[in-house]
Amino acid sequence: MSKQVPETIKKQVKRSFNSKEVKKEKNQKRMTLLKDIQSKAFKRAEKYEKEYLDQEQKLVELKQKALKEGSFYREPEPKLAFIIRIRGIVGVPPKPRKILQLLRLRRIYSGVFIRLNKSSLRMLHFIDPYVTWGYPDVETVRALIYKRGHARVNHQRKIIDSNEMIYDKLQKYDIICMEDLVHEIYTVGKNFKHANSFLWAFKLKPPVGGFSTVKRSFVNKGEHGNREQYINTLVKKMI
Amino acid sequence: MTTQQLRPIVSVFPIKGKVKTIKQVPLPSVFSAPIRPDVVRFVHTNMAKNNRQAHAVSTTAGEQTSATSWGTGRAVARIPRVKGSGTGRSGQAAFGNMCRGGRMYAPKKVWRKWHRKINTNQKRYAVCSAIAATAVTPLVMSRGHRVNKLPELPLVVSDQLQSLTKTRQAVKFLKFIGAYRDVEKVIRTKKTRVGQGKYRNRRHVLRKGPMVVYARNLGIKKAFRNIPGVETASVYTLNLLKLAPGSQMGRFIIWTESAFKLLEDIYGSWEKPSKFKSGFYLPRPVMVNTDVERIIKSDQVQTVLRNRRPRSRKYGKKIQRADPYEDMSVMVKLNPYYKTKLQKQKELDEKNKKERKEIVDKSRKEYEDWLYFSEEEEEEEEEGSDEDREIEVLSDEN
């Protein structure tokens, strides 16, 4: 049974961008790329683990050394903070409202990473009563990005379900996998801005066990303001 | 600009004998004019106004009183009221459109604009469209004509038709050619008019049957005059109101051969102007080639198109993904090093555990050793303390 295919169809298939051969080729290229990404990710993750460990040990060493000498070791000031908005949107005055908007804290229990410098510290000062913030450790950063990390792709919020997603957007900043992203955020690297803006603002759950009183600052047995390392325990309750 | 370099041929049929092609004539260019229902509708609605007769309400209607308003203070409305007394009419309201016996609102005047001017070219465009539509079988059928049994549309018939004089001959011809079904329809559906026209000398309503178009009237007019539904027309004076009754294109027309041929001269073509309508060329269609699909699929177009972009997953499905801290496969996909990390962690923990155990065991052993030795010392001490005890006893007695 000879089926006569019309000439127009034949020509269409030949010209087709989505013809089988073209698709196959594209797929193969993609597969090799993915393999490459994963192997690189493995190596980099290994490197970063070592780096974090070394960092901790170095800190301990320096402290011990200082103790031995009878002096003090002053730790470097934290570069990274994680801010969580703990008050709703009703009745917020214009200046804090604007700053919260700029920091992408547009709803209650949303969280963002921010690099700490003089300007950002001043911003935090204005929004203290509406947020709680502190210095997250590696595990907190990891947990946030792995469990609640969503990417801003095409003006949409999409959950990060593969390293390909990160590669597509952040390849030019040498960030190709989750661990790269975590590292960039945690160590506030050169491309922190791009890594951070790649991430959509984290949408956290209300804390298990609740807050004491948001009206008072953390220092005054309340919840708002700087809570330094205790942000880590809070994030665990909210993640 | 001809969509067809070769004009199709139309058969000419005899008026009696056998329904067989006796001649073939080319289709006049009019039949390829663009069919524009919008133009036809516009021209028809305006043309139909041109046979209206003026009507109006009497100028004095409702004004033939000398009514005056009673003014305020009399517990009645301020409308003008009829003067005088002694009759039921006195004191009744007058003049207003709301009053009984008053004049109407905006009384109709005869100087209303009854007729409409239409641009000559528009009129001609509409007629060309209507004629072209008479050759399109679906349009003729949808107008309601019974054309199933016709040998061909457009139906062209020998010039002998023009010489018919008797109605009987005309009917015989219509039956012969298969057009009588349309006439039968007209006869069957003759009805009394709905509405007041029935007692205004417009009692019956008839459908429209076939229209016979001739070039020369040699008796044909009278022959077809009395057949219900059938109209005759000279090809020189084709009326849009007859070609597209109710602005519905596709009248069933029976052409005589000479009338058919004359169409080419009367309406001209795109190259040659009409001989009878000065400066008139056939209207041009917007698209020469209406087979859009074919144009798009042609090589000339397809080779110039850019590649089709992959279907954008811009607003694609929401990606579901398990929690990596609960689902190991998801974790490994994101961090291929994770399993190794856990393993190393485990090894490290075990190593630490072992070390710790050693240290604990060592210290425990030291403690036990110390205990053991101290017990021995105590025993030694106990042996040497008897004398002391004696002295104590003595002292107690005292």
From TrEMBL, chain A:
- InterPro entries in UniProt: Ribo_uL30_ferredoxin-like_sf, Ribosomal_uL30, Ribosomal_uL30_CS, Ribosomal_uL30_euk, Ribosomal_uL30_euk_arc, Ribosomal_uL30_ferredoxin-like, Ribosomal_uL30_N_euk
Where does the source fall among the domains of life?
Eukaryota
Q: Which residues form the Large ribosomal subunit protein uL30 N-terminal eukaryotes domain?
A: 5-76
Domain Large ribosomal subunit protein uL30-like ferredoxin-like fold span(s) in chain numbering? 81-131
Query: What is a single Pfam family found in this protein's UniProt entry?
Result: Ribosomal_L30_N
Coiled-coil intervals? none
Q: Extract the Gene3D superfamilies matched here.
A: 1.10.15.30, Ribosomal protein L30, ferredoxin-like fold domain (3.30.1390.20)
Keyword terms of this UniProt record: Ribonucleoprotein, Ribosomal protein
Q: Name one GO cellular component term.
A: ribosome
Q: What NCBIfam families does UniProt report for this protein, alphabetically?
A: uL30_euk
Q: Which family does it belong to?
A: Belongs to the universal ribosomal protein uL30 family.
User: Could you tell me what this protein is called?
Assistant: 60S ribosomal protein L7
Organism encoding this protein: Anaeramoeba flamelloides
From TrEMBL, chain B:
What is the organism lineage in this UniProt record?
Answer: Eukaryota, Metamonada, Anaeramoebidae, Anaeramoeba
Do you know which PANTHER family this protein is assigned to? 60S RIBOSOMAL PROTEIN L4
Q: Which family does it belong to?
A: Belongs to the universal ribosomal protein uL4 family.
Q: What Gene3D superfamilies is this protein classified in?
A: 3.40.1370.10
Name recorded for this polypeptide: 60S ribosomal protein L4
Q: Which GO terms describe its biological process?
A: translation
What keywords are annotated for this sequence in UniProt?
A: Coiled coil, Ribonucleoprotein, Ribosomal protein
Question: Which Gene Ontology MF annotations are present?
Answer: structural constituent of ribosome
Family matches, as InterPro entries: Ribos_uL4_C_dom (IPR025755), Ribosomal_uL4 (IPR002136), Ribosomal_uL4_dom_sf (IPR023574), Ribosomal_uL4_euk/arc_CS (IPR013000), Ribosomal_uL4_euk/arch (IPR045240)
Q: What PROSITE patterns does its record include?
A: RIBOSOMAL_L1E
- Recorded source organism is Anaeramoeba flamelloides
Q: Which residues form a coiled coil?
A: 338-365
Any matching Pfam family: Ribos_L4_asso_C
Source species, domain of life: Eukaryota
Where do the record's region annotations for Disordered lie?
Answer: 374-398
Q: Under the cellular component aspect of Gene Ontology, which terms does the record hold?
A: ribonucleoprotein complex; ribosome
Q: In what residue span(s) does the Large ribosomal subunit protein uL4 C-terminal domain sit?
A: 278-354
